[in-house]
Amino acid sequence: MNTANPGHTLAMSQAELLCDRMSTLAESPVWDERRQVLFWCDILGGTVRSAALEPGRYREWSFPHTVSSLGLCQNGDLVIACGMDVIILNPDSGETRLLHSVPAPKGIPCRLNDGRIGPDGAFWVGTMHNVPLPDMQPYGELWRITEKNAERIQTGLTCPNGLAFSEDGSIMWQSDSVQKWIRRRNFDSRNGSFDEGVLVAQMTEETGRPDGGCLDSSGNYYSAGVSAGLLNVFTPDGALADVIAAPVPHPTMFCFGGTDFSTLFLTSHRHNMSEDRLRKAPFSGGVWAIPTQTKGFAGFRFGEGG
Questions:
Q1: pTM surpassing 0.85?
Q2: All structural domains of the chain
């Protein structure tokens, strides 16, 4: 359903699967405009995957731990959140190297979660309490990762999510999937700092627990309402503009891509879905390509400006 129309129509009826590979928990889609492929990860499957809009260009890389988010590097490598490690992958050779190991609070099981390259050239990545959702406590943190340093920036989070930076680098959006808030903050790309910002929305299970998010070139924020099968769209000033049904029950994250950045890619999950629900939604865990009448922009790359 559409509650308003800010001028960026999604052709959800024309949504198509990008490839026939389903993930248990697909996340972190990132479009590589140089290779013209989409990268994403299957968190619980411990894999990074890629595919192009044309068929037959699917690849996969496996890791021994959860793989929760990724970003592009200046030289074409990938920076990846793997367990509690941040690693670099050369997708052409398959070679990896450890960049940093992020410490967890003593005695607390944690893993890395949502991450995004910021306009400061750093990899911003959250940690979360690695227990079932109802038992999660606010042990989560937000870290700023550069080639040389790993810096703890924020504490008191439960499941940090929804990171997105505006095209001009001045705005950062953020959410917490357990605390269910969405905030918009002013961001200073010169030093990687941000302010307290404003509370944009306090979501519910019914309106869509906020998972991953992205921005279009007009500054509209797209939040995956993972619990409700919805795409919630907010205007740059934080007003709810659209509520759109996703093609699957559990959308997890979005990004714009394609040759002109007018395709919205959507990841989804099938984790803990019953056999009956999977029969009704067999493509849960798939990655979808959705034509739009708006455009996104190329993501920032690791090392730029920092």
A1: yes
A2: 12-291 (2.120.10.30)
